[in-house]
Design a protein that fits this description.
Elements lengths: L1 E5 L10 H10 L1 H12 L5 H10 L5 H11 L6 H10 L3 E9 H10 L5 E8 L6 E3 L10 H10 L3 E6 L5 H6 L2 E5 L3 H9 L4 E3 L2 H9 L2
Parallel strand pairs: 1-2, 1-5, 2-3, 5-6, 6-7
Antiparallel strand pairs: 3-4
Helix pairs in contact: 1-2, 2-3, 4-6, 5-10
The chain binds magnesium ion.
Length: about 210
């Protein structure tokens, strides 16, 4: 069976919603103070997410209102989900981002799909992250891919960033958002990886004979 795993932030949406939120609420300096050691490999994504969350003091309602303006779901994603299912496949969203935000954005785009993601406690003194598992990314996305492969499924991974690196390598086929970190990561390793800008392109590649 075909199993498609899709990152959310920057992959289904045009921007990384968590990045946009931290920059807007805490400022670019606070953002850079966390992003630079992350990119340098000095702190884990888990640590970076926990620090970023602590800097945000928005209510759930304020957060969803912010996302309404800033996070646009790829308008071709709903048709892609339907096409995967029409071909007998399964599709899930795997994210290191905030489940509450993801569910809201997908509902607005009229997409019903399983979401495996981190989440936050919207405390007024700063958010606390709750992670899917104890891994360095706070969510071992690659474990989902490996479990599907162990069942004998054909796995496809779609992503854009650091949290997608290991999962993309483990999948049978991979798609990377054009111009983002995952694309460069695959190119640097000589790993076959299709670049994409919208889910309609992935749909063409997977389902047009
Ligand atoms: Mg992403």
């Amino acid at each position: 069976m075909l199993q498609v795993f899709v990152d959310f932030d920057g992959t289904i949406t045009d921007v990384d919603t968590f990045d946009a939120l931290v920059r807007a609420v805490a400022g670019d300096a606070a953002w850079n103070a966390i992003d630079e050691p992350l990119l340098a490999g000095e702190i884990t994504l888990r640590e970076a997410l926990a620090r970023q969350a602590a800097a945000i003091r928005l209510s759930r309602a304020e957060t969803l209102e912010f996302m309404l303006v800033h996070a646009q779901v790829d308008p071709t994603f709903a048709a892609f989900v339907a096409t995967v299912r029409a071909h007998g496949g399964e599709i899930r969203v795997v994210s290191s981002g905030i489940a509450t935000v993801i569910h809201d954005a997908l509902a607005r785009a009229s997409v019903e799909v399983e979401v495996i993601a981190n989440d936050v406690d919207f405390a007024p003194t700063g958010w606390t992250m709750s992670f899917v598992d104890p891994s360095d990314n706070g969510h071992d996305k690659a474990a989902n891919v490996r479990a599907a492969k162990a069942r004998g499924d054909r796995t496809v991974y779609v992503g854009d960033g650091i949290s997608d690196f290991a999962a993309a390598l483990d999948a049978d086929e991979r798609f990377a958002k054009k111009g983002r970190a995952l694309e460069a990561y695959c190119q640097a390793r000589g790993v076959v990886c299709e670049s994409f800008e919208s889910f309609s392109q992935i749909q063409m590649r997977l389902f047009s004979a």
